[in-house]
Every structure is written in structure tokens, then in C-alpha cells.
């Protein structure tokens, strides 16, 4: 089938004619023969022939066998009689039957090759391969060997069972995409189909609902999005591992100002000469922008491995969502919770709209102009005090631009006031406690005329004052207010109810009686109107309040000799969170939700909510307690319209339950854009009940839209649509940033409580969430908030790939979404999270460690048949101690997940993997895994424990690193998969409980503590030996322990001596030393280091001795060989001799079988390979006329051994093989 393109191909004729007397039929025989791959022989070239293996198939076959850690052959050819072929085929079948467990590839399937290629394990090698090949190819001697191809001797290293897997250092991009789909989308749909909606066959709800706080559909995602979405995903995945049926439907907040502003910018770029776009045009552009952004963000979220119902994701601009939102509005209106009022609201001159409190950012270094202004008092006639003559009320304000709207002055009736006199400003009325402040800030000198005037005196006498900005206004009131304090200002506060919420609330009764006006003489853009100065309308008209307008106000006061002093002041002030510009408080006609009526029910409902951190409850309650009304109207086009009509004859709003229901039906029929696109006089929008005495033309549709917090705040209705009122709590969990206490958490609570109150669907109103979690903000390495202006923004992609400033990485070192997920999980999310190059570097190193660990586990399990798994109860005490450590870790990690302490879960797993598993467990079992017989009980026990670790680590890392777990599953040998459940599908309650043990849990813990105490002493002693150049590896040392002070057994649950005796056969493995003894006298060691320690929780003191091992080093396993059991006596040696599986030993009486001496190459340990290769390059080999035969070599060895027996002083030659008993047994069994 194959033609080898070498000169040997022409040998067919020679071989065919080499024995004319043999007339038996001959044929070409093809097979794979074993050759030592450690020689790095290049692959021969092959020509593909019909029915044969292609070049790539041949290479794959060789690589699969090579990956199994066995010596593999390349294809060779020969001629021989047909009956010999049949004879060899029979032997091949027998060999294959014996080694069926060894002839499986990494997927667990038997290798399939054409029938002309026989896959054979030839485990006996001859050293004269060159001579044999010469006979086969060019010689005349008839071939009569029983095995067709005899190769050179194997290296001992080729018999070591090293880990074998093709698990890569990092996943390929194309594989990552596959793992994302498998571990996210496919997993979500699987659990929705397979997991029951009820638990245990009862009516108990088995659903876990995490309701998504919708991100805003504007721009690309930042690290804050990553923190939020990945935390949600970790929680959902953990709940899935607990057997829950997870429901997580993502959402997007699509309405509002930022998208509308982008729509306006896009309109200007495309149509520069066109007039301002209509609301319909704005909405069309905004919708396209939102849809594009949602799709882009969705793909980014999915690339992070977020498991969710992406196909049914909701958007606040969806028609069904908008109709549900209007339905909630209707319910609140029916309860009288929605009203229209003219009152002060937060207003943004930069974005021309009202704002909610949640849309404010407070800037600590805002600069204002502070001013002391003196208002002349009107003294009642019945006031006898002469010092009141000509007195002026001194007020202090940081908003001089509001003085034209002044309507009253507030004082405190329980405060004491003074009258002082200054040469420049005359008599001033000031709070006594604020005299020093005025003197210091205003810089004026005055004399105190009276300092015991109670504030109540002015209230009782009815003092008034005059404003210079409206001469028609006289007799403005002075009243008492609780917000006046003696810690700021002058003790007198200028009040403008059109520009202050406290002023409005305090003067509400005066406003109702018409004694005080709600005056706000500025327009939408923050410019004075003519109403600012009725006596001179043009004086301030059109001037910006924060610029020329305020300067002119101050100049006017100077001219009136009323401005005592002004200066610049830095203080905290609210800004529009979108435009980053200062806002104002301005009275306008707006729609409000009456929070005061429902806030106490809302606060009460929080008693049944779990908060993390606990301070979140106090924070949310404080926001609710301080709210009375919620301005829900906005002056924008991109949003859900407030369903109000306006009577064009009176300007009054027209809204009833009937009109709202009617408008909702038109929207359902025509779509919500029709509210703006239909003709203004379209009668379809007017309910027939309004036409009794009016015409459709008498009404117009309103242009206000709802606050986006009302949009997202009603998103709980999306859950209610599917579950109705059947669930005790709509959502099990809300989790967002800490800023949402005054945003989405609050709006969701208020709309839900209001809806329940209106509809009476739930007897006792409940919060829409059962638990409320908040996470911090992301900060840069200096602790600063990230912003584009500071240039410190780090994208999730930089963390995902490791490509960020200050992070030195190798080429293509990006480890994919798990790096980003691991970074999120590694931080305590209840505080602010710092993003720095060092933090990202640490995460990438940790992920490399996890990948390396899984590669080691899977590689060692490549030839493990789970049918041979050793039950935990059948393992040795030492192995049960290690298994108990694994259970401890599992319990700790599960507790951390349950408490949402993911950083503790990662910390515990990292500690276990780095120390308990890698440094202790793997190091202690490597010798057994690599050097023991394939199915020895000790090796199978170690592999069983390794399998427990694989299943546990996969399951525990699943919520945080699902792609890594999916990848490890893809590389898990199929034979193991058949006995396992996919770790991402497995519920924790499916995990078998740990078997009952004959020993108590405390004995395991005591054993572990003892091992750690010994380890903390033995390692430093070995390090001293290394520094003194007495040893290099730990196997070049032995350890002896002497118990100096025995315990009193009746006072101890497990004595140190008993524990040591139980662990003794395993201690050489645990500490990776050649020998470990107990209470043994050391005969004249070459070097020795010792230390005495006390055992924790014990009365014992023990002496630990580290010294040189006796004997030689085994050429196969590198453990040091004891030349005779008489060399080291004591208890340790006795235990050791009974456990040759655990501790390899060699006695001088056990000889090495001749077949081993012939089959393997000795005298060149693997560590000396490079030295031999270097020597071969520089040393010229002198050819011999007659090479020494194998028989002659064996005869020489026998003669050398006889000489050694006759003369003990004669040392064995360097080529004499050194093997321990265990390795002799293993090699003999091959």
C-alpha cells in the first residue's frame, strides 16, 4: 500500500531471490514497529497510495501513540514467507488482546487503521538492529527470526508513564468561540428544558430568577459592565449547580437623553442645512442607534461567557414593554398617585429637561459667588425699641442669581439675634452666633447695639421687608423655618420657592393662600426672562444666570447699596450626570408621583429583603424617608409619552382613567410613534366622553415623556407577565452598583408597591426583590474614578487579552474570557474595585496555574479506567487524609459561593491548588503515577484520588471559569466521561456524600497538622543541605524521626506515635525523599541536619533528622537504593520492607533478569543525556573490526560479578545497572 521513497525500495528483487530453494509463496509485509522516539528520528517521507493512510493521518496516528507516553514505531517493510506473516498476525492479535487498555487514543477509541497496517506493541528490543537491517536489505543470509524487526535497546526513561494530553497552554480562538457557545447558550437552554420548575415533585418553586438591571444602550461596554454582568453570571451558574432552574433574561434601557442627543448630532452631521428635526425624526434615528448598540453590546456580553436567555432579551423600547409601563402608570393614576403641579424640580439648562435626583452628580469643587445682602426691614408701628430704626436683615446666599425671585426671609424663632451698626452699611440684623462669621467673611467692623433679641419677637410683631427687584412688592413676610441653622450663613435665609424645594415646602400654605408667588424668571436654557425685573424688563432679560446675568444682579445691588460683600466659594453642588454641567432648581409644570403616600409601606417591605452589604438597607431607607414626590415627566421626544391631552382653550391637562385606556388602545393599534407622527388634530386620540361639549380640535397631545427611571422601574412587570402573582417574590435577586439605591432599586420598589396597592393583587405589598446586592465602582491604580478625560479608562478587552500599559506579556498570552471573569471574582465586590496592570498580571498568572493543574490531572488520567477506581473507604489512611482536605476545600468554597463571597472562594481554591494539591498531593504521587505498574493498587489509588480532585475542581470552578471547565471536559478521556456527569450540568446534591470512616474527622485533621508541622521543619533542613552542596534534589536525602517525649494515650484522641506509624509507608512519597524511618539509629552519616520541635495540640516533642541516603540511585525512578536491609534497621525499615509498592527498595540478593539487561540501555541516566550527546559530537569513535556480540557482553558482566563476590573491595563498574526492586518488577512485567 505504501511506497517508501528511499534506496531500500529497490531491495525487493534481492530479497525475493535470496533463497532459490524455498518455493513457498512470499508477500510484502507492512507494519508499525516500535522505535525509541527519544532519539528524535525524523519522520520518513511517504507517498500516498489508494486505500492507504495519508501523510496527515499517518502523523496523527503517530502523535496519538506518542501522546500516550509509549515508545512508538514508524512504518517499516520487509519480505518474508506468507506462513510467517500469518504466524506474526496471530501473535499480534494475542498482544493486542493483552494490551487492549494500552491501545486506546486520548479519546478512548481504539485506533482505526487500514487492514494492511498492524498496530503492535513490541516491548522487547535487541541492540544489533543495524546488523539485522543489513541482513534484511542487502545480505544473502536467509531470514529466520521469530520477530521481523529488532530495534536498538530502549532508554529506561521510555518506560516512565509521564502525563499525556493535548490540553493546550491556551485555547485557540476558534475553540474559545465553541466553548463559549457550549458553556453558555447551550447550557442555558438545556437547563430550561431539563430542570423542573418545581422541586422534589412538590409545589415548591424551583426557579431562581435574577432580574437584570438594564444597562443603557449607549456606547461600548466598560469594566463596570463587566463587573456587573459577570457577578450576575457567577450567581446564576452557582444556583444552577445547586439544582435550580435559572431564569436570567437580559434587558436594555433604551430611552432617554443620551441617545436623543446622539440622534441630534447625527442629524446635524447628515443634514447641516435642515431645520431642527421633528420629534418623529429624532425617534427614528434614536431607535436605530439603540438597536445597533444593543446588538453590539449583546455580542460583547456573550463573548464573556454570560449564560442568559439572549433570544428573549427585553428592551424598554419594545412595544409590549411600553404598554405594560403605561398599564402601571394607569394603576398609579387610579389611586391618585399621579398629579400635575407647578413646583420646583431639578432642571438642566444644558440638556433642557427636568431631572430626577438619581440623575444628579455632586461636584465637590464647584465655584459659586457667595454674597451678603442687606434687605431693609419694615418695622411695625407698635415696636418700641429705638435700635430697630433703619435696621436691615442681612442674608447670605451662594446663588445671587435667585434674588430676583425672592419671596420671603426665613429665621428661627428659638434663635437669639443681634443688632449691630457699621459705619458703611448702618444697622444690620444678624444671628448672635454668626457675628464672628460675618466679621471674618465680610470684613466689616461693627458695634453691637443689642444682642438678646429672640427670633420669635419678629414673628409675633409681623416684621416684613422690601425687595429692590420689584417695587410693587412690599411687605414680604419673615417666617420661621426649621432648615435655618446657627452653623451656616447669618441666621437669616433668603427664600425663593420657585428655585428651592425646601422654600416651596415651607411656604406651601402661604402659596396656597396667594400671599407668596412661585416665581422662577428663567427660561429652559437658564436665561433671565423679562419677569425677573418687572420695573425694568430689559435689564436682565436674555442674560445667562451663571454668567453676565449674575454679575448684573450683583451690580444692581451695589448700586442700591445693598451688597455688603461678595466672594468666590468652592462647595458641593449638583451637576447633570450626562452633560457634566451645573443644574438649577426651577419651578415648572410637571407630572409627579406621590411618594409620600406609599413610602412607609415601601420601607416596611424592606424588612423581608436580604441586603449585601448590610449597610445597603440603611442607605435605601434614608433615600425613601427623604422623598415626598417624584417628578416623572421629561421634556424630551425619545421616550414613552405621558398619556395626557391638553385643553387648548385653558391650557389645563386632561387625564382620566378612560382617556388613558383609550390612548393605550390606539398605541396598541398604531404603535407608539403615532403619538408624535399623527396629525395634531387627529380625533382618534380623543376619548368620546370629552366631545360632549368640545371638538377634537380643542385638544392637543402632550409632548412630555416619562422619566427613564420610571421605564426601568417598571421592568418587574416583565416577570409578572410570565408568573403572575403566583410567586411570593417576583425576583430572587437584584444586583447593581451602589448608586442604584437612589435609582433603579428605589424606582422598582416604589412602582411595585404603588401597583400592588392600586390593584390589590397582593394582600401585603412586597418588594419586587428577595435580595439586594450592591457592588462598588471600578477605579484605576491610583484609586481614581475612570473617565475618558483623565485617560485612565481600561476596557474589558484589555483585561481579557492582557494587552494593557504596564503589563509585560508574552506573544499571544491572552487567556480569553476566563481571565476577565477571574479578575471580577477575585475582588471583594462590595467595595470599590481597583484595576491595575499588576492586578491583571496576577490574574493571568493564576489562570496559567489553573490550566497547568488541569493539564497535569488530565494527562495523568489518560490511561485510567474508572472501573478500577478505588473507593475512598478502601484507601489508605494517608490518602483519606488528603481526601478529607479536598472535602474541607469543597465545603469552604460552597459556603463562600452561598454567601456571595466569590473572592474567598477563589482565594481558598488558589491556596489549595498551589499548596495542598500541587506541592503536596501531586508531588507525593508522581513516583507512583510514573513508575509503578500500570494496574498496581497504589497507582490506581492515586489515580482515583486524582479523579476526585478533577471532578471537584471542575465543579467548583464552573461558576467562575466555565470556559476552562468546558475545555477540560473536552479533553477528558472518553472512558472517564462515560462514568461522569458534565461538571456544568451536575447539581451539587448529585455529588455523593463522603463515606463514613472508621476514624474520626479529628484524626484526619490531626494527621494533616502533623504533616504540616513536619514539612515546615524538614524543608528548611533540606535547604541547609542544598546551601552546603550536600544535595540538589530532595530524593538525595533521607529522614528519621525520634519521638523524645511520648504522649499519654488516654488524654489524646490520636497519639503522634500512632499517626506516624500509620503514615510512615507514605512519608517518603509525601516529602519526596528516598527513605523515612522512625526511631532509628543512623550509622555514621556523611552529612546530617537536625531540629527538635513540639507538635501542636500534643505533649510530644520530636527530633527530625535529615541526612544522606545510603546506597546508589535507581537509574529508572532516581530513588536511592538501600544496598542491604541490615544497613538501616529500626521500625521504619520494617514497615518499608512490607510496602515495596510505596517505597522502592533494592536488596543486594535480588538480581536483574537477563532480558532486562538486553532490552534496555543502562549507564546513561536521563540527566546525563545532554552530556553524552555533547561528548559524541567531540569524540571521534574508533571502529572495531568485530563488534562485541550480546553473548560476549553478558559473559563479561558475569565475570565482573564473580570478581565482586570474591573481593568485596572491588566496586561495580559504572555500567553496572542500578535498579530498585519495584523497577525490576515493573520492567520484568513488560
Automatic annotation (TrEMBL):
Reaction catalysis annotation: tRNA(Ile) + L-isoleucine + ATP = L-isoleucyl-tRNA(Ile) + AMP + diphosphate
For the protein in the UniProt heading, the enzyme class is: ligase
Indicate whether Transmembrane helix appears among the record's keywords: no
Q: Which GO terms describe its cellular component?
A: mitochondrion
The main location class comes to mitochondrion
Sequence ranges assigned to domain Aminoacyl-tRNA synthetase class Ia in this UniProt record: 202-835
Query: EC number(s) in its UniProt entry?
Result: 6.1.1.5
Residue ranges of the Methionyl/Valyl/Leucyl/Isoleucyl-tRNA synthetase anticodon-binding domain? Answer: 880-1037
Where found? Mitochondrion
Q: Which UniProt keywords apply?
A: Aminoacyl-tRNA synthetase, ATP-binding, Ligase, Nucleotide-binding, Protein biosynthesis
Q: What biological-process GO terms show up in the record?
A: isoleucyl-tRNA aminoacylation; mitochondrial translation
Q: Where is this region: Disordered?
A: 1-27, 41-65, 87-114, 1127-1150, 1164-1222
Please give the Pfam families that the UniProt record associates with this protein: Anticodon_1, tRNA-synt_1
User: What PROSITE patterns would the database entry show?
Assistant: AA_TRNA_LIGASE_I (PS00178)
Q: Name one GO molecular function term.
A: ATP binding
The Swiss-Prot or TrEMBL record describes its family as follows: Belongs to the class-I aminoacyl-tRNA synthetase family.
Name this polypeptide is given: Isoleucine--tRNA ligase, mitochondrial
Q: What is the native source organism of this protein?
A: Phaeomoniella chlamydospora (Phaeoacremonium chlamydosporum)
Amino acid at each position: 500500500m505504501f511506497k517508501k521513497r528511499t534506496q531500500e525500495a529497490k531491495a525487493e528483487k534481492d530479497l525475493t531471490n535470496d533463497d532459490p530453494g524455498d518455493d513457498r509463496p512470499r508477500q510484502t509485509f507492512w507494519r508499525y514497529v516500535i522505535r525509541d522516539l527519544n532519539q528524535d528520528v525524523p519522520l520518513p517521507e511517504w507517498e500516498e497510495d489508494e486505500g492507504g493512510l495519508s501523510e496527515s493521518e499517518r502523523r496523527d496516528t503517530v502523535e496519538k501513540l506518542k501522546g500516550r507516553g509509549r515508545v512508538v514505531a514508524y512504518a517499516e517493510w520487509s519480505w518474508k514467507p506468507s506462513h510467517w506473516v500469518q504466524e506474526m498476525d496471530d501473535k499480534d492479535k494475542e498482544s493486542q488482546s493483552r494490551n487492549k487498555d494500552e491501545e486506546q487514543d486520548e479519546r478512548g477509541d481504539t485506533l482505526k487503521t487500514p487492514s494492511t497496517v498492524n498496530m503492535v506493541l513490541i516491548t522487547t528490543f535487541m541492540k544489533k538492529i543495524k546488523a539485522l537491517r543489513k541482513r534484511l536489505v542487502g545480505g544473502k543470509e536467509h531470514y529466520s527470526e521469530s520477530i521481523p524487526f529488532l530495534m536498538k535497546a530502549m532508554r529506561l526513561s521510555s518506560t516512565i508513564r509521564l502525563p499525556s494530553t493535548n490540553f493546550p497552554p491556551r485555547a485557540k480562538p476558534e475553540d474559545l468561540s465553541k466553548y463559549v457557545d457550549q458553556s453558555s447558550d447551550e447550557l442555558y437552554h438545556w437547563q430550561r428544558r431539563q430542570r423542573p420548575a418545581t422541586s422534589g415533585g412538590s409545589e415548591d418553586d424551583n426557579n431562581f430568577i435574577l432580574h437584570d438591571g438594564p444597562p443603557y444602550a449607549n456606547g461600548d461596554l466598560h469594566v463596570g459592565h463587566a463587573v456587573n454582568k459577570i457577578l450576575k453570571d457567577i450567581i446564576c451558574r452557582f444556583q444552577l449547580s445547586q439544582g435550580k432552574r435559572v431564569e436570567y433574561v437580559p434587558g436594555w434601557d433604551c430611552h432617554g437623553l443620551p441617545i436623543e442627543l446622539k440622534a441630534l448630532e447625527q442629524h446635524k452631521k447628515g443634514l447641516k442645512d435642515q431645520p431642527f428635526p421633528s420629534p418623529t425624526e429624532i425617534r427614528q434615528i434614536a431607535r436605530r442607534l439603540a438597536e445597533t448598540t444593543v446588538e453590539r453590546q449583546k455580542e460583547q456580553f456573550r463573548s464573556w461567557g454570560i449564560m442568559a436567555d439572549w433570544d428573549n432579551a427585553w428592551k424598554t423600547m419594545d412595544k409590549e414593554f411600553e404598554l405594560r409601563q403605561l398599564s402601571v402608570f394607569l394603576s398609579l393614576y387610579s389611586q391618585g398617585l399621579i398629579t400635575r403641579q407647578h413646583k420646583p424640580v431639578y432642571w438642566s439648562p444644558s440638556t433642557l429637561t427636568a431631572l430626577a435626583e438619581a440623575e444628579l452628580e455632586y461636584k465637590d469643587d464647584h465655584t459659586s459667588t457667595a454674597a451678603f445682602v442687606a434687605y431693609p426691614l419694615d418695622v411695625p408701628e407698635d415696636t418700641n425699641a429705638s435700635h430697630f430704626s433703619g435696621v436691615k436683615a442681612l442674608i447670605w446666599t451662594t446663588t445671587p442669581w435667585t434674588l430676583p425671585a425672592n419671596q420671603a426671609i426665613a429665621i428661627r424663632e428659638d434663635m437669639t439675634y443681634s443688632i449691630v451698626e457699621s459705619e458703611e452699611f448702618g444697622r444690620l440684623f444678624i444671628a448672635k452666633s454668626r457675628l464672628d462669621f460675618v466679621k471674618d467673611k465680610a470684613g466689616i467692623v461693627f458695634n453691637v447695639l443689642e444682642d438678646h433679641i429672640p427670633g420669635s419677637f419678629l414673628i409675633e410683631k409681623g416684621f416684613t421687608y422690601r425687595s429692590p427687584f420689584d417695587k410693587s412688592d412690599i411687605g414680604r413676610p419673615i417666617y420661621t423655618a426649621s432648615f435655618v441653622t446657627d452653623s451656616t450663613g447669618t441666621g437669616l435665609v433668603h427664600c425663593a420657592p420657585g428655585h428651592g424645594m425646601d422654600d416651596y415646602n415651607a411656604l406651601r400654605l402661604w402659596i396656597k393662600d396667594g400671599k407668596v408667588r412661585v416665581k422662577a424668571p428663567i427660561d429652559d436654557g437658564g436665561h433671565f426672562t423679562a419677569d425677573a425685573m418687572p420695573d425694568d424688563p430689559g435689564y436682565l432679560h436674555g442674560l445667562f444666570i451663571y454668567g453676565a446675568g449674575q454679575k448684573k444682579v450683583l451690580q444692581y445691588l451695589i448700586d442700591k447699596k445693598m451688597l455688603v460683600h461678595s466672594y468666590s466659594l468652592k462647595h458641593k453642588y449638583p451637576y447633570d450626570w450626562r452633560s457634566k454641567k451645573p443644574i438649577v432648581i426651577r419651578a415648572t409644570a410637571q407630572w409627579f408621583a406621590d411618594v409620600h403616600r406609599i413610602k412607609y409601606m415601601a420601607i416596611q417591605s424592606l424588612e423581608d429583603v436580604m441586603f449585601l452589604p448590610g449597610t445597603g438597607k440603611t442607605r435605601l431607607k434614608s433615600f425613601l424617608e427623604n422623598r415626598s414626590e417624584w417628578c416623572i415627566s421629561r421634556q424630551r421626544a425619545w421616550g414613552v409619552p405621558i398619556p395626557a391631552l391638553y385643553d387648548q382653550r385653558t391650557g389645563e391637562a386632561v387625564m382620566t382613567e378612560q382617556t388613558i385606556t383609550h390612548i393605550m388602545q390606539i398605541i396598541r393599534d398604531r404603535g407608539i410613534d403615532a403619538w408624535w407622527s399623527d396629525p395634531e388634530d387627529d380625533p382618534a386620540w380623543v376619548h368620546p366622553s370629552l366631545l360632549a361639549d368640545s371638538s377634537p380640535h380643542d385638544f392637543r397631545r402632550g409632548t412630555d415623556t416619562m422619566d427613564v427611571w420610571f421605564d426601568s422601574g417598571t421592568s418587574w412587570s416583565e416577570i409578572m407577565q410570565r408568573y403572575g402573582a403566583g410567586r411570593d417574590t417576583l425576583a430572587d435577586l437584584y444586583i447593581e452598583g451602589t448608586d442604584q439605591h437612589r435609582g433603579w432599586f428605589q424606582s422598582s420598589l416604589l412602582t411595585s408597591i404603588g401597583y400592588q396597592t392600586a390593584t390589590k393583587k397582593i394582600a401585603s405589598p412586597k418588594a419586587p426583590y428577595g435580595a439586594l446586592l450592591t457592588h462598588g465602582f471600578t477605579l484605576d491604580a491610583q484609586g481614581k474614578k475612570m473617565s475618558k478625560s483623565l485617560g485612565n479608562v481600561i476596557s474589558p478587552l484589555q483585561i481579557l487579552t492582557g494587552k494593557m500599559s504596564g503589563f509585560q506579556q508574552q506573544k499571544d498570552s491572552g487567556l480569553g474570557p476566563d481571565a476577565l471573569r477571574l479578575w471580577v471574582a477575585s475582588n471583594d465586590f462590595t467595595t470599590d474595585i481597583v484595576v491595575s496592570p499588576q492586578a491583571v498580571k496576577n490574574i493571568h498568572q493564576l489562570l496559567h496555574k489553573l490550566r497547568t493543574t488541569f493539564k497535569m490531572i488530565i494527562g495523568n488520567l489518560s490511561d485510567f479506567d474508572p472501573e478500577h477506581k478505588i473507593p475512598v473507604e478502601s484507601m489508605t489512611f494517608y490518602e483519606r487524609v488528603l481526601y478529607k482536605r479536598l472535602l474541607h476545600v469543597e465545603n469552604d468554597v460552597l459556603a463562600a459561593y452561598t454567601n456571595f463571597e466569590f473572592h474567598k472562594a477563589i482565594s481558598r481554591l488558589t491556596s489549595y491548588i498551589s499548596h495542598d494539591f500541587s506541592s503536596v498531593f501531586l508531588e507525593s504521587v508522581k513516583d507512583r503515577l510514573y513508575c509503578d505498574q500500570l494496574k498496581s493498587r497504589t497507582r490506581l489509588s492515586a489515580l482515583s484520588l486524582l479523579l476526585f480532585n478533577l471532578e471537584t475542581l471542575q465543579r467548583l470552578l464552573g461558576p467562575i471559569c466555565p470556559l476552562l471547565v468546558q475545555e477540560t471536559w473536552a479533553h477528558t478521556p472518553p472512558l472517564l466521561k462515560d462514568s461522569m456527569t458534565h461538571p456544568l450540568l451536575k447539581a451539587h446534591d448529585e455529588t455523593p456524600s463522603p463515606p463514613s470512616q472508621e476514624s474520626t474527622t479529628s484524626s484526619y485533621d490531626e494527621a494533616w497538622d502533623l504533616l504540616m508541622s513536619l514539612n515546615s521543619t524538614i524543608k528548611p533542613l533540606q535547604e541547609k543541605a542544598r546551601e552546603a552542596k550536600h544535595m540538589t534534589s530532595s530524593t538525595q536525602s533521607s529522614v528519621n524521626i525520634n519521638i523524645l517525649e511520648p504522649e499519654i494515650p488516654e488524654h489524646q484522641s490520636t497519639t503522634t506515635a500512632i499517626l506516624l506509624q500509620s503514615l510512615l509507608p507514605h512519608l517518603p512519597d509525601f516529602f519526596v525523599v528516598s527513605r523515612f524511618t522512625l526511631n532509628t539509629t543512623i550509622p555514621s552519616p556523611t552529612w546530617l541536619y537536625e531540629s527538635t520541635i513540639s507538635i501542636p495540640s500534643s505533649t510530644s516533642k520530636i527530633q527530625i533528622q535529615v541526612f544522606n541516603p545510603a546506597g546508589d540511585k535507581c537509574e529508572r525512578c532516581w530513588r536511592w537504593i538501600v544496598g542491604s536491609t541490615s544497613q538501616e534497621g529500626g521500625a521504619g525499615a520494617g514497615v518499608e520492607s512490607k510496602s515495596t509498592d510505596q517505597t522502592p527498595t533494592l536488596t543486594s540478593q535480588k538480581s536483574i533478569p537477563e532480558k532486562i539487561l538486553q532490552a534496555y540501555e543502562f549507564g546513561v541516566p536521563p540527566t546525563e543525556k545532554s552530556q553524552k550527546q555533547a561528548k559524541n559530537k567531540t569524540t571521534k569513535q574508533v571502529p572495531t573490526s568485530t563488534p562485541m556480540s550480546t553473548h560476549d557482553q553478558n559473559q563479561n558482566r558475569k565475570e565482573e560479578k564473580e570478581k565482586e563476590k570474591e573481593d568485596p573491595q572491588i566496586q561495580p563498574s559504572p555500567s553496572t545497572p542500578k535498579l530498585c526492586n519495584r523497577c525490576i518488577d515493573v520492567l520484568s512485567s513488560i
